[in-house]
Amino acid sequence: ETGVTQSPTHLIKTRGQQVTLRCSSQSGHNTVSWYQQALGQGPQFIFQYYREEENGRGNFPPRFSGLQFPNYSSELNVNALELDDSALYLCASSLYYMSGLGNTGELFFGEGSRLTVL
Amino acid sequence: AQKITQTQPGMFVQEKEAVTLDCTYDTSDQSYGLFWYKQPSSGEMIFLIYQGSYDEQNATEGRYSLNFQKARKSANLVISASQLGDSAMYFCAMRGLTGGGNKLTFGTGTQLKVEL
């Protein structure tokens, strides 16, 4: 087990609704990132949070937003849900990586939240 | 921009045999890291092995080894002595090391099936 927990594990929403997904990071990790994995695809980077601020974003619209709390837990919020938002959402915790710091920045993933939008 | 290509959608291997999963990458970064993750049907991404672009030796972790050929931009995963529990989806991923952070770019994955 990685020590990264996500909730809820499964949920169903209808188009236009809003959803909040939660992630509890592994103890000692200061960085959290979120990924979207559509069926049959590899995960796609949504964004990353470090020290409670967004620190890198993939090609996702502003209706995807997030928060990181002082205890390094995190939320992913998606507004105005669309059918294409149906996917597995993965949270990953890690130590912040920069070349020379001496860590590989390995990401530890949770089991994901599977969102279905009808 | 970074790109990972995994050309094998599915692979079969017999138990106790070795198998190689292919991965090629493209990046303009001089310094980068390559990862392999295993994803069973439960959905969790399990870290297997890491290779830094400046590492002189190929990475090994137990039954997993990474065949890193920098000039060819390939980072193939070799699983020795396959076990039934190795049946899963396998993803190759890259992290660019300029600018910091932990964004990974993933390939489309290879579904491995281990048979008796």
Structural write-up:
The complex is a heterodimer of chains A (118) and B (116). By secondary structure, chain A is mainly β. Chain A has strands spanning 5-7, 10-13, 19-24, 31-37, 44-50, 53-57, 64-68, 74-78, 87-94, 108-109, 113-117. In chain A, strands 2, 4, 5, 6, 9, 10 and 11 form a 7-stranded mixed sheet that branches. Chain A has a 4-stranded antiparallel sheet with strand order 1-3-8-7, with no helix packed on it. In chain A, strand 4 (31-37) and strand 5 (44-50) form a beta hairpin. By secondary structure, chain B is mainly β. In chain B, 0% of the residues lie in helices and 52% in strands. Chain B contains no helices and 12 strands. In chain B, the strands form 3 sheets. In chain B, strands 2, 5, 6, 10, 11 and 12 form a 6-stranded mixed sheet that branches. A 4-stranded antiparallel sheet of chain B has the order 3-9-8-7, with no helix packed on it. In chain B, a hairpin with a 6-residue loop joins strand 5 (32-39) and strand 6 (46-52). The interface between A and B is medium-sized, with 33 and 28 residues.
Low-pLDDT runs of chain B: none
Helical content class of chain A: under 10%
**Total helix count of chain B?**
0
In what range is the share of β-strand residues of chain B? over 45%
Regions of chain A with pLDDT < 50 over 5+ consecutive residues? none
Shape of chain A: globular
Number of strands of chain B: 12
Provide the residue-averaged pLDDT of chain B.
92
| SSE pattern of chain A | EEEEEEEEEEE
Strand content of chain A: over 45%
Helix-and-strand structural type of chain A? mainly beta
Mean pLDDT of chain A: 90
